[in-house]
Structure to design on (228 residues):
């Protein structure tokens, strides 16, 4: 069905669907579609060659991130136990190394390694758990933190610049590894780490990741060969 008035053509269509009928209406002037409406609440307009989109309803998918995922099956006891045991062993070994390094005023146990442990032991196939991504991000982001502190000193500006530069670095190089983004902040606010200077790029983050990578191989072997 169509109507024409003052050079404006209005066209209405009825589109049957499996659940209910829907209607679409178009407004046309001099061969240009100015507007169309769909009765579910979605609406688009063309103004001066620019499409402007709007919607009167909020898509349900916008809230999906706030809902828990429904796992296809409950994890087995072994899939839960081995990663947890790996994390325990990792922290115990790092703690023992701390005792050996204490006389030199060094410590290898830092909070980001806890996040790395969770990533390596629970989601070893995730892109951010790849060894290349992990070491490139750990070394690069740590160096960025030292550089930001050297230029701006302690404070909010150094933290802001270091974090934004770290995210840009990981994005540009394709080495996304979220735990590494905390390394610059840790250095800037950690007075005990300042004496390391650019050695911080290798220790304790990257050095600790070497140990965690070795433990990860054991965890993966146990998960695949000792199921219960």
């Amino acid at each position: 069905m169509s109507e024409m008035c003052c050079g404006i053509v209005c066209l209405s269509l009825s589109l049957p669907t499996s659940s209910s009928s829907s209607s679409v209406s178009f407004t046309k002037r001099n061969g240009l579609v100015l507007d169309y409406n769909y009765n579910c609440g979605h609406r688009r307009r063309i103004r001066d060659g620019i499409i402007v989109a709007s919607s009167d309803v909020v898509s349900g998918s916008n809230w999906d991130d706030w809902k828990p995922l429904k796992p296809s099956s409950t994890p087995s006891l072994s899939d839960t136990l081995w990663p947890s045991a790996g994390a325990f062993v990792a922290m115990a070994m790092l703690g023992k190394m701390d005792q050996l390094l204490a006389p030199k005023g060094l410590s290898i146990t830092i909070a980001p390694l806890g996040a790395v442990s969770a990533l390596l032991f629970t989601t070893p196939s995730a892109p951010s758990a790849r060894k290349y991504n992990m070491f490139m991000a750990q070394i690069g982001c740590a160096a960025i933190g030292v550089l930001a502190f050297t230029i701006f000193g302690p404070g909010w500006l150094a933290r802001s610049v270091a974090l934004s530069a770290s995210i840009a670095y990981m994005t540009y190089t394709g080495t996304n590894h979220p735990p590494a983004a905390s390394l610059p902040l840790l250095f800037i606010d950690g007075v005990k780490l300042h004496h390391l200077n650019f050695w911080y790029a290798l220790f304790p983050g990257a050095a600790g990741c070497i140990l965690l990578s070795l433990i990860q191989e054991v965890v993966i072997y146990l998960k695949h060969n000792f199921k219960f």
